[in-house]
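Re: folding output
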Amino acid sequence: QVQLVESGGGLVQAGGSLRLSCAASGGTFSRYTMGWFRQAPGKEREFVAAIGWSGSSKYYADSVKGRFTISRDNAKNTVYLQMNSLKPEDTAVYYCAARALITTQAMGVLPPNAGSWGQGTQVTVSS
């Protein structure tokens, strides 16, 4: 099963940008659909974005569409989340997830006990 490690979180002012990275190891990265999720304090986990194995298929939550961009580099076994025009409501712990042979839409409803998950990285957006 693939192991995932997120990085790139931090504190940023509203309107700023951050790029999250998720490095994968222990599996054939190009077989996996990759996703980003987030969880704010006191709230349920929320889907953010997903990308198919080749990078051509992408799927976004309405709340981030037009502001966030998901991408992947299969040669580096890494998936990225470029976050622009950040808002205080984007504050959350961001998690990377991987599951083989599913669509990006299916990644959007991935159960917490399915696939592989990273440990998360904190993103805090100040107003």
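--- second protein (sequence, then structure) ---
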Amino acid sequence: QVQLVESGGALVQAGGSLRLSCAASGRTFSSYAMGWFRQAPGKERNFVAAVDRSGGATSSAESVKGRFTISRNAAKNTVYLQMNSLKSEDTGVYYCAADPSSAWGVVPTGWINYKYWGQGTQVTVSS
């Protein structure tokens, strides 16, 4: 089992930047592919970005490509989401998730692949 704790959410103006962090504890960090999802008020939870177990392969949603970057630091058991050029439509609760089943090089993008979830961190972008 793994515990996930997100941080870094804040209120920011459109065009600004934020970096979200997700600290993992428990089982070996490299055992998991990691992903970020977000949920706006009244809407479903959507995929944002993910990284495979090694950190060598990533995927991101079309709406954030070129603006958001996911990365992981094995020494710190942490995955990051660097968000630049933020827009009002990026507002929502951002969730970190861990997938214990994907093989090396596989980047899962569906929420159903992820077994463990953090509590979320709020990102609000004002226009």
